[in-house]
Every structure is written in structure tokens, then in C-alpha cells.
Amino acid sequence: MTLIKSISGIRGTIGGHVTDGLNPVSTAQFTAAYASFIHQQTKKARPLIIVGRDARISGIMVNRIVTGTLLGMGCDVIDIGLATTPTTEMAVTGKQADGGIILTASHNPKQWNALKLLNSRGEFLSDAEGKEILRIAESEGFDFADVDNIGGILSEESYLDEHIQAVLALPSVDVEAIRQADFHVAFDSVNSVGGIALPALFEALGVKHVTALNAEPTGHFAHNPEPLPEHLTDICSAIGSSKVDVGFVVDPDVDRLAIIDERGTFFGEEYTLVAVSDYLLQLNGGGNTVSNLSSTRALRDVTERHGGSYTAAAVGEVNVVTKMKETGALIGGEGNGGVIYPELHYGRDALVGIALFLTLLAKSGKKVSELRATYPNYAMSKQRVDLPSDVDAGALLERLAKEYSDKGDINLIDGVKIDLPTEWVHVRRSNTEPIIRIYTEAPTAEEAQRLADEFKAVLLSYLN
Questions:
Q1: What's the CA gap between 179 and 199, in Å, rounded?
Q2: Which of 245, 340, 446, 454 lies at a C-alpha separation of 20 to 30 Å from 114?
Q3: Distance from C-alpha of 300 to C-alpha of 329, rounded to nearest angstrom
């Protein structure tokens, strides 16, 4: 059994010994630490916390433990039930809450669950805030409320309609254009909350022809829930054999969006953000964009084509959001299909990604495959090097940076990123596993693989 504690929350596999995994004891301990932190931050006797969850099998159990612990810590709770991650984030600000807890392990398999922690802005905690909660949890530095000060469940209600209405109210979302286009869409929500959220969104957008795959939110995922090409053969086959204009695939908590074109071909998860950004940059006459260091160079190219400025951030949603605020970015996100549109909220949101992409598709008059052909074409390779427990990953990266300092433009804000004229490599250590990740991008898959193999061999040579 596995339990991973990080600044963004706690995640692990369900079950096992009391010292292992995400069990009732570890869940309560971490929830109490978060509640103690919120008490300290707000100075309120009864802080208000939003709780939402995806459809994982363990979700009800974890929800009961989390909400019960929050009540025991003297917090009031609004439980919004089955909800996407972006819906929970928006509910925090919409309900003027002091924080929120999202119960989801995102793209991890069904045996995993997690607590993701939000501040009063509905955003993930900063590095310093996350470390303080870890400290409180480790020291058990929290006190439960006495019987007269136990919190209460203020309501149990959905916030999905408010989320969808906020998406439709965006000037950049053209509901009438989408309705007139009379699209036939397909979607795969991998048996989680997307099966609730996406049909409601399509109905609100006036999309009448919808083919649903794995839509029942049972938590028994029909395939590996990470929206990668090798996991999406069913929807690609379904689209390729029918008259579907576009397919959408989301992960279990609906913050990542992958697109399938009308031929049943993977649009490229990296290109979700590129396409949406291209539309918004054109609509706004330019603007700044941000993605993380491991995301495609195509976003930079498209941004500069519209006269804007692109900035790279360290990997992690909180780092991207911080950089977006610093640069006043119009749009940003991550190459894993995460679209962050500040006009709605500062969080990855597949619902707004779908609405913006359908608007782009309707206004362009192009097929999805034709749209994809208008963007710079790059291919990526992602590899890893497993490290012995006694190896200093930081020292390996310092050596790599020194040896390649004259080979290209070096960025050291998160591992080692080397930008070359037509390709790049990003080498960084994992925050949760004893591994080093190697991401490369080049004009062709063969060149990206060659570059990844080269740097993997260099790292392995350091270990010998």
C-alpha cells in the first residue's frame, strides 16, 4: 500500500495497515491538520469548507471521514457531492467559503484516492502553506472542538449548474454559433463525474447529438483513466465508424481534456491548450500565455504569431497559476490537456475547454483535423530513469546542467530544461517517486525519441 504526502495534499491506495495507504486514520489526521491551518489563517470560530468528490468507489467512505473530521474541528461544511474539480474550485468562491477539499486522485487508477486542498480563492495552496499543513499533520498539532462548538453540514447540493452558467456567460463562448453548427459530439468520461457534467454542458450549449461512452459514474473505470492515446481506442473506433464531428475525453475529475478528430484520430493532448489559446489570442488581438516547462513549444509559436509573449513555469498547476498572475496571461495551462482561463477562474477546467473549442470549431467552419493542421507540428517523448535510494538526484541534475551549459538555452527553475533550435529536453526529478523524468520534443517522433535516448544514456552513465 502507498501513501504520498506532498504540498498539494495527500494521496494513496485504499486499505492496508494503519501505517500504510490512504485509510481512515491518515485521512482524518490530514483533514484535521488542514482544518487547523484554516482556523489559524481565518481566525474564525467556524470556518466554512466546501467538499466535493469524483465517483471513485472509495469516495463515499473518504467523504464521510473528511466531513466528520471537519465538523469535529469546528468547521461548517457544504457538501456538493459528486463534482468535478473545477466545479468544487468555483463553489469555494461562489459560496464565499474559507477553503475546500476535493476528493479525487485525478488520473490514477481506481484503487487510489486523494485529498486536494484549496484556499479561499478556490486555488491550490502555495508551497509554504502546503508545508505548514504537513508540519501540523506530522506533529498532530491540532485540537478538536468541544461538543458546543462542533460544526454543521449547512447544505448538500450540486454546484454544477452555477459552473455551467458561468461558462456560458463568457463573451468568448458563442452558444448560438455552437447551436447553429449542429455538431454531433462523442465523449468518454471513464465512469466518473464527467458522465454527469458533460451531458449537462452539451445540453446547455445546444448540442443535440451526443454519443456517450463510459458515462455511468460508478467508479469502476472502463479503462486506464489517464486520457492517453493507448487508453482511448474505444472512442477512436466509435468515432471513426460514425458521423461524429469531435470527441472529448476527460479524466475522472474533469480537469484534463483530450480531443479526438472526426476520423477517430487523437488530436494530441498537448494541442488542447494550443487550439483554445489560438482562438482566444485571435479574438483578443494578442495576449500573454503560460504553460509549464514540459509542455509543447507550439504554444509559444502560436502566441508569438499573434504578437503576444509566452512564459514557461515550473511543473505544477500552482506554479503555472502564479506565473499567469505575474504576467497577466490571457490563457495558460499544462500540456496534459489542462486549460486555465482566468476570466472564469484560476484552475484547470475541461468544461470551459470544451465550450471554447466548440466555439472555435463552429466559427472556423473547419473540421477538427483541418484545425490541427494549422498548428506547428511537434512530437514528444517521455521517459524515466529509476534511481537507487542512495542517489542524490539534485547532484545528477547539477552535473547535467554544467556539462550542457554551452549546448543551448538553459532554464534551471525546475530541473534542467535545454532549448535547442528545433528541439528541447527537460530533465527533472519527481516530487513523489525516486525517479528522474526525461521529456523531449522535436519536429518528428523519431527525433524526439533519439534525443530522449541520448539523455537517458547520459544519466545512466552518471550512475555507473
A1: 15
A2: 340
A3: 13
Contact 339, 348 (CB under 8 A): yes
Q: Is 431 exposed, middle or buried (0-12, 13-18, 19+ CB in 10 A)?
A: exposed
What sections of 46-205 are H helices per DSSP? Answer: 59-72, 85-94, 127-139, 160-168, 175-181, 194-205
Chain centroid to CA 381:
20
C-beta of residue 328 within 8 angstroms of C-beta of residue 288 = yes
The reported pLDDT for the residue numbered 432 is 65
**Please, are residues 441 and 271 in contact by the beta-carbon 8 Å criterion?**
no
Helices 194-205 and 350-364 pack at an angle, to 10 degrees, of 30
Residue length, the chain? Answer: 464
Give the dihedral sign, CA 38/14/315/391: positive
Note whether 70 and 35 are within 8 A (CB): yes
Q: Which residue in 317, 305, 308 sits closest to 6, CA to CA?
A: 317
Q: Is the pLDDT of residue 151 over 70?
A: yes
Count CB atoms within 10 A of the CB of residue 463.
11
With 90 as the cut, is the pLDDT of residue 17 above it? Answer: no
Among the listed ranges 11-15, 65-69, 257-261, 296-300, which one has the minimum average pLDDT value?
A: 11-15
3-state secondary structure (DSSP) of residue 226: coil
DSSP 146-172: -GGG---EEEE---HHHHHHHHHTSTT
* Nearest one of 158, 430, 407 to 294, comparing CA atoms: 430
- Residues annotated as part of the active site: 106
| pLDDT over threshold 90, residue 437 | yes
- Confidence at 176, pLDDT banded by 50, 70, 90: very high
